[in-house]
Amino acid sequence: METAFRSRSRIRHIITERAPAKINLALHIRRRRDDGYHELETLFAFLRDGDEITITSGQKGLSIDGPFASGLETGGNNLVARATKTFAQLVDTKTQYDVRLTKNLPIASGIGGGSADAAATLRALARLNGIALDDPRLFACADALGSDVPACLYGRTAIGTGRGERLEPLDGLTGTPVLLVNPGVAVSTAAVFRAWNGIDEGPLGEGDPLAIARDGRNDLEVPAKSIAPVIGEVLDRLDETQPMLARMSGSGATCFALYDSEESRVSAAVAIRAGAPGWWCLESTLA
Ligand code: C5P
Fold first, then answer.
1. For residue range 269-284, what is the model confidence (pLDDT) as tens digits?
2. pTM here?
3. At what angle do helices 113-128 and 79-91 cross, to 10 degrees?
4. Which ligand 1 atom is at minimum distance from the Cα of 38?
5. Residues with catalytic roles
6. Fold annotation for 2-169
7. At the fourth CATH level, which superfamily is domain 177-285?
8. What would the pLDDT profile of 222-231 be if each residue is shown by its tens digit?
9. Residue 37 Cβ contacting ligand 1 at under 6 Å
């Protein structure tokens, strides 16, 4: 959404950009690389809901509000601040921006929050500066910011290989009801990858996204459970709601379940909230 208003003599632009939650419908680790990363085959999908970025030309820098704001710092390590800096180098601009991040998604939770925020910042800045969203320079910025940022920049169902940055779009699953559940435990992505047993269990399968997801697995589930055993409880409770598929996303601890109807997802959410009132739940649909 873009609006413009006249302040004294100049026009100020405000851009609001959604930063949708990402889930990994499947995540296969094929091998450890010499650079410390892991070679992946993953199926990314995106929700209609997530964080929100609002950008105005100004001087104040980054501010954060929303239910999960307190877990984040606004300094130079914040991925949104890094995205702004990387973008400024790309377009060689001295323009300064006020960036507001509304943090609706839990932090360090396997649903790409920071990556989605950085990608949304890049999209908003690109639109403010007349740069096309498929400009390869924008993708290069995303790639430099993190393994999931290119997928979040694209924002649609895709197979990711390499670190996750090489993307092949796939159609299907749009509108599928989804429930996210997080038990309130932050998990370090690097620590979960380090705990992987190093055994290649094979590639993603073929077919439509649901078939690939159902035949697939998340190889980070076992190492994440060894760090945060409550993830097993989340998955057990989601399985009891009879979804089409329930699985952990990314390096956890957030797990997702897909349903064949809105009614099934609503009853599942009611059951999960009643059984574990302290857990965070998000009811949404796939984009
Ligand atoms: O790329 P990003 O900074 O988001 O990755 C965070 C951490 O996750 C990396 O430092 C690395 O430990 C791990 N990672 C990995 N292999 C990948 C992606 C991430 O080992 N393909």
1. 999 999 999 999 999 9
2. 0.95
3. 30
4. 16
5. 22, 148
6. Ribosomal Protein S5; domain 2 (3.30.230)
7. GHMP kinase, C-terminal domain (3.30.70.890)
8. 999 999 999 9
9. yes
